[in-house]
Amino acid sequence: MAPHQADEEIAHANEFIDHLLDRDHHPALGPTSAPEIESGSVLVTFETALEHDRKVSESIRSLY
Fold first, then answer.
1. For residues 52 and 28, what is the distance between their CA atoms, to the nearest angstrom?
2. What is the three-state SS of the chain?
3. 59 to 16, 17, 47, 54: CA distances (angstroms)
4. Where is pLDDT greater, at 47 or 2?
5. Pairwise pLDDT comparison (1 vs 32), residue with the higher score
6. What tens digit of pLDDT does each residue of 4-56 get?
7. Is the dihedral of CA 53, 54, 56, 60 positive or negative?
8. Which of 42, 39, 40, 14 is nearest to 29 (CA)?
9. What is the CA radius of gyration of the chain?
């Protein structure tokens, strides 16, 4: 992940945390891990990243 993109993701995470704290919730942050990719194929890498993005988006919708 490029440094600029990582900074952007950290900013998004901080916005979620601030949103929860403003509403008297206390988020607990746990460890995260990169998805395991079994192939060096560009297609498999893309599909794995897409599935992860969908999972994250669903988690955000569930929180909302």
1. 21
2. CCHHHHHHHHHHHHHHHHHHHHCCCCCCCCCCCCCCCCCCCHHHHHHHHHHHHHHHHHHHHHHC
3. 12, 14, 18, 9
4. 47
5. 32
6. 888 998 998 899 899 999 999 998 888 888 767 677 788 988 888 899 899 99
7. positive
8. 14
9. 14
Q: Give the Å distances, CA to CA, from 14 to 10, 11, 21.
A: 6, 5, 10
In this predicted structure, what is the pLDDT of residue 21? 95
Structure-block tokens of residue 43:
């297609």
Q: What pLDDT sits at residue 58?
A: 94
Q: Which two tokens stand for residue 10?
A: 């950290």
